[in-house]
Amino acid sequence: MRTSKAQQAKNHRLIIQTAVDLMTQHGFEGTTMKQIARAADVGDATIYKYFPTKEKLVTAYFEQAIADAVAQADKTEGQNEFSLQERLQLVVNSLLEGLLADREFVGLARGMVERTPTLLLGEQLPGKPLLRQTFVQMLEQAETSGEIVSCGFKPSLAGLLADYVYGVIAYWLRDTSDQFTNTTQMVDLSLGVLVLALRSGLVDKLLELGGFMVRSQLARLMQDGNGLLDLLQLARRGLGGVRS
């Protein structure tokens, strides 16, 4: 009997969650595809129709989490009236809330991603195309409403924002503050700085200097965390002065 699309989607989600549970208990290397299939009550061969490798299972987890976060943000009442910063934060916060229950697994999965350098290049980060599309739409809406000045590099900036989301996850995984207040503050400050820069037109000038430099320095700051909040506070004060 042919499996319906609804049942396929249900199986897809069930297999991912089963893999999350097993890998959290036994680790990535200590969990086999056969174990996942049997725990999810699907055939040993059937699981490969959904996910050919364990690595694909891990990337599918992030793709699903990002899709769920974007969908949740879209459902938020009155979100079309939010400022650009509020809309960006809504997506980030929705994602972190969705990842919270699986935080231990997310840490394990991040280690796997770091051991697979090709995942860090171009469009291969899980869920990056959807994030970029979402952020382009937000930037266009803000530009149309006059909230920010005309931005000629919206696709490039949206791609950097998608990379930024993964930087936020890395920062969040290292955050030991109560209720992750440091992460909340970092996201608020960093997106606030970005929006101020967009209003002043500085982002276009920075992107002309090369997105790779911006991306690499952002990744370093997100991972190290040393002085990041102080740096963002300083940048916001400086840009606030430019705006006035």
Give a verbal description of the structure.
This protein has about 240 residues and is mostly helical. It contains 12 helices and no strands.
Strand content: under 5%
Over the alpha carbons, how many angstroms does the gyration radius reach?
A: 19 Å
**Which runs of at least 5 residues are low in confidence (pLDDT < 50)?**
209-214
Question: How many strands, what sense, and barrel or not for the largest sheet?
Answer: none
How many beta strands in the DSSP annotation?
A: 0
Organism: Janthinobacterium kumbetense
Protein name: TetR/AcrR family transcriptional regulator
Keywords: DNA-binding, Repressor, Transcription, Transcription regulation
Features:
single chain; 244 residues; mainly alpha; elongated; TetR_C_23; repressor
Please write out the topology:
Elements: H1 5-26, H2 33-39, H3 47-50, H4 54-75, H5 84-100, H6 103-114, H7 128-145, H8 154-174, H9 181-200, H10 202-208, H11 211-224, H12 228-243
Helix pairs in contact: 1-2, 1-4, 4-5, 4-7, 5-9, 7-8, 8-11, 9-12
Describe the structure in brief.
With 244 residues, the protein is mainly α.
